[in-house]
Amino acid sequence: MYNRLANNKRLLFSLTLVLAASLLVPSHLFPSAHAQFTGLVCITTSTSATSCPTSAPTLGPFVAGQTFTIGIFIQGSDAMGGLDIYVRSDPAFVSPTSAALGPLIASPSLTSICVNGSAQTGSCTVGTANGPGVVEVTTIESSGSNECGGLSPCSGMAFTITYQVVGATPTTTLSYPTAAGCSTSSVTSPPNVCVLVADSTGTTLPENIQGATVTITLPPAVVCITYPTTATSCPVGAPDIPVTFGSTVTIGVFVQNSQPLGGFDIYVSADPNYLNPTSAALGTLITSPSVTSICVDGSAQLGSCGAANGPSVVEVSTIESSGGNDPGTGLAFSITYQVVGVTPSSPISYPTNRDCFVSSVSSPPNTCVLVADNVGTTLPENIQGANVVQTHAVDPTMIRITCVPNPIGLAVGNLTACSGIVSDTAASGKVPPKGRVTFQTAGFGSFNPTSCDLSAMNATTSFCQTNYQPLGVGVLIHGFGITNITVLYFGDTIHRGGTFSGLLQVKPAQTGIQTVLINKQTGFPLSLTGDTVPLGVPVFDRVFEGFLLGGFGFNGGLGVFGTVTYTLYPNSYCTPGTGTVISTVTVGSSNKVPDSASVTPAVGLHSFDAFYHNVTTDNLPSTHVTSPCEPFTVTPPTTVSVSKFFTDSSLTALPLDNHGNPMVTVVLARGIVQSTNPGQVLAWVNVTNTGSTSLQSLKLNETLPVDWTVSPSWLTGKGAIHVYFGNTISLVTNLEITQPSTITVTTGNPEVVQVAISSLNATALGHPLMPGQSILLSVKLTYGLIKTSQSFASYPRNYTDTASAAAWTLPSYTGAKASATGSALFTAYAKVVGDPGQDTPIIDVSKYAIV
Q1: Which of 325, 235, 332 lies closest to 280, judged by CA?
Q2: How many angstroms separate the CA atoms of 497 and 486, rounded?
Q3: How far, in Å, CA of 471 to CA of 414, rounded?
Q4: What pLDDT is attached to residue 548?
Q5: In this structure, what are the phi and psi dihedrals at residue 678, rounded to the nearest 5 degrees?
Q6: Of 621, 529, 541, nearest in space to 574 by CA
Q7: CB of 488 closer than 8 Å to CB of 499
Q8: DSSP code, position 236
Q9: Helix (H), strand (E) at residue 689
Q10: Residue among 251, 424, 422, 238 at smallest CA distance from 338
Q11: Which three-class secondary structure state does DSSP give residue 252?
Q12: pLDDT tens for residues 553-594?
């Protein structure tokens, strides 16, 4: 114990107390430290026991779900000053939930309690037996003296443990584990038993040990797996069913001691890597079955399949046709499996699924086991599965690696598919190997992924595939480099692992170069604007994605080396001898190539290309390559104009006032706006292509005059707003190209009309807006102040309408862009009808009233 406690400074603390006390107290007051008694560490069935039982006790019988508490008692030992004791159970059947100190150590300190590898108090001792099913309790006497007044023999309850029963088995033991970290032990045989009792000076005291047996029976109402199917009751504990690879096995699903039942719907699942269900059949539990469904491997053999079905899942459901209940014990159904894999043990269990929320099983929730009576009441059931077990020798294997293309030679930088192949070479009982294989290379290159899972390709061999990319040729021998590649197989439970290495021929790569012209103003390729650019916009050439294609340096593929020369030609054909060198750049690391310098050619046809001169060994000798010719056109600047005008609803221009501005009349009666003349005003926007390039998409925003609104507002897309192609001299005869979905109106004061036409080709116009052609926008307006109180003295009022337009040479608002704005106003004059209201001076009336 104290070797282990010393790691937590407990021994140092204990010895400090002892040494301090020895300096102050006469030595004859200390009892002898030499062992005189061999004690017994035992398990008691009662936490209040005052002695050990005469033999190992038997606890139970218990059923799953129950809890019980035992005592760990030390009897007839030399007086002790501390302890460190481990107790182990099989967590498949009984699992410890908590532990607590007993009264043996009168004044405990530096206590640690570890349950299932998790510290409840203090910390768990590492490098020992802690883990699932194990309880460790360690403590020392804080006074520095021994218990029982230092008199031997000394007995007492060291601590207690509470367990939860989690599974059925005829018997399971509670014992004391062994571990290499428990080499200092109170128990002489067997060695390394994790039981340590020591006195206050750290001397190990001798102890014998005595464990216990726990019996666990099945609870009432259980659904279990039986083997063979002729069994007439459930086994106590999940049975082990022996199988062999390639054979078939039939198991039973049995219901025992349930309440009388009228039907069931039960799912059973297995691991499809080892067991494949082939069929299922009803048993005798339901006397007169009807409405039966049998689903195997997700496929209905009878009836239909429920939601939780899938690979290696079997569902069987049926009801009693008489409408009554059947006795609650009997074989529900049987399942036949094909053994398709080898493993020491594989479970047969009951799946869970959220669609199985109505279940006879309380824990775990959503277990797909439903047993009900004849009126549909869910009956409570417990469940018990089974394990199929196999005994198989560890077979030898043969490992290979093959790659395609090979051995003709793989060009550096290209991918090849490499397969790791593992075969079972045993004299008999061959099984396709399982597990993972890992790939490695001794050359410049990489596998992606570096490992993969084997899949069976026939009855004795498995394979998996990955990609390999050589990034360097290495030393050239007869025009090829040689790369060593290796596959590692780590084996599985029945196959030996091993390695295999092969040679891959790698040949030099043919370097290629591709370039793309970039509009420096937008940063986008010229191809997005039809290989055109407006005059004055700079362009430059760029090696595609910044890389030379296919070129890999002799230094392991870290990059090609050499220079790239960019040339501009005054024609669209890259005619030799006519070009001007724009830039010569050096290829950087990882194949990165700097861009060319920017140029701003004149209006007309031009072209670019890039010439690569390589200096690497990995590329073919004297492979000087030129990119494909890139023609482009420099166009005159794209321009548009925007103008405004106003008409009445009959398309007649508004009359002009003395200042030459369009005018409308606002009629007021006793200070209330009654109407306008004309009753409606049409605000027009004229967008004209004033450039030399056609336009394919358009956005137009019109900010309407304050206090004037689109009318009718509920039919903005159809009744009040129209778009025309201005192809005639008369507004009446222009072609309407209105698309309601392209028009929006934002509310507020002022209102804003927005038109967005992503493709004029898609409108009734059917073609781009050519140079000199116009688009007209018409918005019908009414005065928003009608029926409101307004002072006639506030008139005349000027109302301004502003429009802005942007047009592009390509659809979807791409390509060269042109924009413009325009505005216009009209003036509203007051016309007073009758008494102007209130005490308005006659001079004002005569000034503003038209009547």
Answers
A1: 332
A2: 13
A3: 8
A4: 57
A5: -75, 165
A6: 541
A7: yes
A8: S
A9: strand 681-689
A10: 251
A11: strand
A12: 544 444 566 789 999 999 999 999 999 999 999 887 666 789
Tell me if 472 sits within 8 A of 481, measured CB to CB. Answer: yes
Instruction: Show Cβ contacts of residue 814 under 8 Å, excluding neighbours closer than 6 positions.
Output: 528, 529, 697, 808
CA distances from residue 147 to 83, 153, 207, 769 in whole angstroms, order as listed: 11, 10, 16, 106
The closest of 291, 282, 281, 283 to 322, measured between CA atoms, is 291
φ/ψ of 544, rounded to 5, equals -50, 120
For 24, the enclosing helix (H) or strand (E) is: helix 10-24
Q: Distance (Å, rounded) from C-alpha 119 to C-alpha 122?
A: 6
Q: Which of 158, 198, 168 is nearest to 72 (CA)?
A: 158
The Cα–Cα gap between 333 and 285 comes to 8
Q: E strand or H helix at 842, and its extent?
A: helix 842-848
Please list, in sequence order, all residues whose beta carbon lies within 8 angstroms of the beta carbon of residue 41, skipping any fewer than 6 positions away: 72, 73, 74, 85, 158, 176, 186, 195, 197, 207, 208, 209, 210
Distant-in-sequence, close-in-space partners of 78: CB < 8 Å, separation ≥ 6: 35, 36, 37, 39, 152, 153, 154, 199, 205, 206
Quote the tokens at residue 429: 């009982």
Contact 93, 217 (CB under 8 A): no
Residue in the block written with tokens 């290989």: 531
Q: What is the pLDDT of residue 587?
A: 81
Give yes or no for a contact between 85 and 41, defined as CB atoms under 8 angstroms apart: yes
DSSP 528: G
3-state DSSP percent of the chain in helix, strand and coil, to 5: 10, 50, 45
| Dist. CA 347–CA 737, nearest whole Å | 72
In this predicted structure, what is the pLDDT of residue 696?
92
Cβ–Cβ < 8 Å for 486, 439: yes
Residue 449: name the closest of 457, 458, 439, 459 by CA.
439
How far, in Å, CA of 702 to CA of 813, rounded? Answer: 18
CA 220 to chain centre: 43
Residue 2 near residue 14, CB atoms below 8 Å: yes
DSSP 598: P
| Residue 679 CB coordination number (10 Å) | 13
Rounded-to-integer distance, Cα 397 and Cα 195, Å: 45
Cα–Cα distance between 173 and 59 in angstroms, integer? 10
Distance CA 532, CA 604 (A): 10
Joined together, the tokens standing for residue 191 give 């060695």
pTM (two decimals): 0.48
CA distances to 600, 692, 768 from 634, rounded to whole Å, are 9, 12, 19
DSSP 786: T
Q: How far is CA 693 from the centre of its chain?
A: 50
Beta bridge partners of 456: 462
Tens-digit pLDDT profile for residues 419-438: 999 999 999 888 899 999 99
Cα radius of gyration rounded to whole Å, the chain? 47
Residues 566 and 561: their CA atoms lie apart, in Å, by: 16
Residues 128 and 194: beta-carbon distance below 8 Å? yes
With contact defined as beta carbons under 8 Å apart, do 167 and 60 qualify? no
Give percent of the chain with pLDDT exceeding 90.
Answer: 69
In degrees and rounded to multiples of 5, residue 435 shows phi and psi of 110, -165
In the predicted model, residues of the chain with pLDDT beneath 50 are 1-35, 546, 554-558, 621-622, 839-851
Distance CA 198, CA 703 (A): 95
| Cα–Cα distance for residue pair 819/699, rounded to 1 Å | 9
Q: Comparing C-alpha atoms, which of 118, 129, 122 is closest to residue 108?
A: 122
Q: How far apart are CA 247 and CA 616, in angstroms?
A: 61
pLDDT at 251: 97
Q: What is the CB neighbour count within 10 angstroms for residue 743?
A: 22
CB 442, CB 467: distance < 8 Å: no
| b/e sequence 639-672, b meaning 16+ C-beta within 10 Å | bbbbebbbbbeeeeebeeeeeebbbbbbbbeebe
Q: Which two tokens stand for residue 125?
A: 């001792």
Q: What is the pLDDT at residue 8? A: 38
